[in-house]
Amino acid sequence: MTRGGRQSRMGLALAGGGPLGGIYEIGTLMALSEALDGVDFNDFDVYVGVSAGSFVAAGLANGLSPAYLCRMFIDSESAEVPFEPEMLLKPALGEYAQRAATVPQLLLDALGGYLRNPLRHDFFATFQRLTRAIPTGLFSNKGISAFLERLFSAPGRTNDFRQLSRRLFLVATDLDSGNSVAFGAEGHDHVPIAVAVQASAALPGLFPPVEIDGRWYVDGALNKTLHASVALKEGARLVFCINPLVPFDAELSARHDHKQRRRLIEGGLPVVLAQTFRAMIHSRMRVGMSKYDKEYKDADVILFEPGRDDADLFFTNMFSYSGRKRLSEHAYRRTRAELLRRYDELSPRLARHGVTIDRECLLDSHRSLTRAMAGLNRGRARALGEAALQLSDALDNLGYALKRRQTRKSGLAG
What we know:
By secondary structure, the chain is of the alpha/beta class. The protein contains 16 helices and 10 strands.
């Protein structure tokens, strides 16, 4: 038996997908936490995060509930510490300046090498070294670290892996070796959690690599999508996996929605790159999932992900407030539908670990993430109101006591 009387150690593995992936994961977590009895996503034994998933995993391991994360990422108006995606689009001015400063010397070296022996050097190949001056990322990712430092500085939270009561692993890729590194593991647990998240989410080309202890790190999804094996090696025997990154099937989407098929080529380079990246890492993830079944026969690894026809996820604008709310609601409803559809398959697997599916909850068609959050916010407001009243009473009592004491002193002095 483990913490809370559970029958198995539990783990959570979250993949990447940028801010949209994080929003999808939070909607999925809200649905799972509501429908699964015996599951508390703040009381797991192991958390593993990659890229955007590292942000969510670090929050959960720090005691931030899925509802808190939902307010922070999606329902910003009611959040204590709102997350604004605009922080991810600040130009990497320091990187630009550093690279620009190398241009004169690179140009002199190239020109000098060519002029010394022009017959043996191809002109364009000689000047190829100027590509070293191209910035390694368009946007600065320092805002991620700064935001998390503030978030984890609150009482009861920590920016130190070693002070967590749960195991947290945030995976990044060592740029010079190509190897995966799990921050939070022995030898890598001295790195601040906020910096580890920044490194894990440093998507090449978009954000510059992050320097840690003299080495440079980029997005952890370059080697694996989920890294659920990290949780399994830590002894977790029930691992929930959420992967928002699936390739989009335009023909399937058109058939389901009875609309004209979208041609992804019309979306330009960003859409083409997104589809290519999704296709590559999804096929690799499927291979990894099949290995878990053979290598960890006593464990259950349960995956939740969107369908290939999910246009809402693929085309949502992450900077649109309404788009974020719609996507999280979509993830919530889809996960509920998937739990109901897979009820016969998942029930016995989950029961092995002391977890049951609340079928009546899933059959309630009136449930929605919007209503759930509204109810939680009302309850939170009532709790804050009661706390405010108690504080007011305490201050009144303190003021009365001080006044009596001052009166007594005045009487004695007289």
